[in-house]
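Re: 1,3-dihydroxyacetonephosphate structure - here you go.
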Amino acid sequence: MSTVTIDSALPFGSYRELGNQELRERIQKAKRELGSSLLILGHHYQQDEVIEHADLTGDSYQLSKLAADSADCRTIVFCGVHFMAETADILANRPEKLESRHGARVRVVLPDMAAGCSMADMAAIRQVESAWEQLGEVIDNSDITPVTYINSAASLKAFCGKHGGIVCTSSNAKAVLEWSFKQRKRVFFFPDQHLGRNTSLKMGIPVEHMPVWNPHEDVLGGNAEEAIQSSKVILWKGHCSVHQMFQAVHVHQFREKIPGIKILVHPECPQEVNDIADISGSTSKIIETVRNAPAGTKWAIGTELHLVNRLKKEHPEQEIHFLSPLVCMCATMYRIDLAHLCWSLENIVRGTVVNQIHVKEDVARWSLIALERMLTVR
Ligand code: 13P
Ligand code: SF4
């Protein structure tokens, strides 16, 4: 029997020249060849032409569950951003899963390594560790539950695992904060100040007890000692560049122009928008809310553009508007396109896997503790 050894990956360059129809056909062919050994996961912010090829779609919580529960597949191609692929790698390769597969790993592939998340990049592990140390000088660290939004690097999830903390998503943030307050009397929430503040406000925590920690300030994140000592939730000064574009004035303009319109937003939007919206929730909650509304309902939706445009197409029986007059799209989610998807799939078929995300063993072990807590708190 002869063996063919293929040792170099197909270069990406030539894929740029291919038309969408050819790319579509080649993606479908690669999917047929890989069969059930391949699972393509797609986040709701992906472009329609990419979503078309996803086996399963979801919000961050659902996609984590799908990766954790995956059974037959040996490769997950993640059409989303870097932190999502890291989370999938940790959950799909946790010890009991590896054991059930006799040590074989599920490979997680991110079609374009430049698909990061600007919010996740706003909190680096050395900044979080330095903040933790400084907090310990004015309050007791053992009184604080660290909570990281899933939109963060695996090293931050590991930090939470090590320090009795947890990961949250936009769909379980309230339940996670309730869990956190059962453990300890304060929460240190990173990297999204808006999700942290909006959720805490809904739980009745006054904004005066939520100091904002600016990692670029040398002393106590720019706070007075007393502000930290009287805190309930310490919020990291991070945000989503897409959702911070939605403003209260956009809500007022729609309400004036279209009486009866309902405002539906993501909790990554600033407080001024969340406070006056009719409904706020994760991408899946936004989709479900529109799906379950009677025909003729009028909406102005404050979340990423590709999802809102898809909802418009899927629900012609409703009147759907994008909440901002500006284009609010996630440039990094948009990095995943047909060319990168086709390139990564054809390399998997050839056995020359590209862009594999493999979280270091030590980081994965500690992150898993915080992620497993997240999956049980709902
Ligand atoms: P969800 O899909 O979990 O609501 O997250 C939105 C988001 O910003 C992902 O990056
Ligand atoms: Fe990150 Fe915002 Fe893009 Fe989500 S929408 S991936 S939070 S930049």
